[in-house]
Design brief:
The chain is α/β, with parallel strands linked by helices. The chain has a single domain, classed as Metallo-beta-lactamase, Chain A (4-Layer Sandwich), CATH 3.60.15. 30% of the residues lie in helices and 22% in strands. It has twelve helices and 16 strands. The strands form three sheets. The protein has a seven-stranded mixed beta sheet. The chain has a seven-stranded mixed beta sheet with strand order 7-8-10-11-12-13-14.
Amino acid sequence: MTDFFEIDLIDVETKKSGDAIALRYSIGGVTKIHVVDSGFQEKTGPAMIKHINTYYGHPSKIDHVVATHNDGDHTGGLRELLETFEVGTLWMLRPWQYAAELIDRFRTYSSVENLARHLKEAYGNLAALEEIAQRRGIPIDEPFQGVTIGAFTVLAPSRARFLELVLASDKTPQASMPNAFFAQARETLRDAASAVAYAPIVMTYVQSAWGIEIFSIEAVKAENEMSVVQYAELCGQRILLTGDAGCAALTEAADFAPLVGLNLPGIDKFQVPHHGSRRGVTSELLDRWLGPRLPHPLSTGQETFVGMISSALEDKDHPRNAVVRAMYHRGGVVTATEGSTKCFGYNAPYRGWGPAVPIAYPWDQEE
């Protein structure tokens, strides 16, 4: 059988974007199914199952399931997937597993068991997957930097950075607090941030010449920086899957890339992080992964890579124009789910699907 791969970004069509990615690849006659996240519990889980059964030959087993991080728009749909299929390995990072290593960084906990219980409650989406996996006898493994998952290698997070992110997360507010005054101050800041998050956002746009990029200086939250970043070369195509990774995760991944034979820049299939948010990337970081900005647009059909985005039609905040522009500036073409599942592949079995319509280059961007 000829080697092939197919990457399917399943449409997560709710008011908020989510990630649900199914992959099937065959190398040397050995075929594997690899799922990365599965959107929301009620909406996307059944859609993922239907897609796999329809296009992957109604398999009884999925070889690898990866939960990139705790967010419900990534992990929710995995519950039904684990209940439906035999699964070779569930890959996820469970903060409560490291309570014994972290206990000395907490002033309000003296019991490893109590800290582990708190972390398990805080990361409830991952805890739910653990319960299903243990009940069904599905092995769980840690996707830390350097680990291989089928044809993919984990580029981030490293174990050390993951543990620091657990401490930095708002889900562990007691970590490293010297006294009650500072603990209360942090709670006040969190409340203020929450109020801002739910306040109406009025975005203004500015017309911009080719090559101009305006990104946000606001960092993504610690849980997003925990995202598992995976890389594989399949059929000569270099594939990067990023989840909701931010600048720290992508920098760590880029630093590690040469150690697994990935010499940057140069990615052929690039999952744009965090549904096309402009908080997770910078011009310098994209230069490092994808190459420098070009002096002028490429002609249609001359693009050198595909920027793949999971974004819902009703989600007006994703993708950001600045990020779409940045993909084109480096010679890419951009495709988003936006109401329909998108397939990217090489030598893949024919489905009768037409080519995906790319997002047009926007001449304005967010201020």
